[in-house]
Design brief:
single chain, ribonucleoprotein, 68 residues, Ribosomal_bL35-like, ribosomal protein, Ribosomal_bL35_sf, 37% helix, 3 strands, Large ribosomal subunit protein bL35
């Protein structure tokens, strides 16, 4: 049976922690920082945990996961 390939776009956008959580970058965190407040930049700068249905879909796209 053929191996399942990891989705290339998913592996660029998400990462798996050692405990098995799937993390993603905050939205609006790429460019045009002059127009954003300092508190907003700090808030979107932190990685966020995927939960629920998004987490299930991400696990399927990422294929084999470390930590679990």
């Amino acid at each position: 049976m053929p191996k399942q390939k990891t989705n290339s776009s998913a592996k660029k956008r998400m990462r798996v922690t050692g405990t098995g959580k799937i993390m993603r970058e905050g939205v609006n965190n790429q460019h045009k920082f002059e127009g954003k407040s300092s508190s907003r930049k700090r808030r979107v700068g932190t990685d966020q945990v995927l939960t629920g249905g998004d987490r299930a879909m991400a696990r399927k796209l990422l294929g084999k996961l470390k930590g679990r």
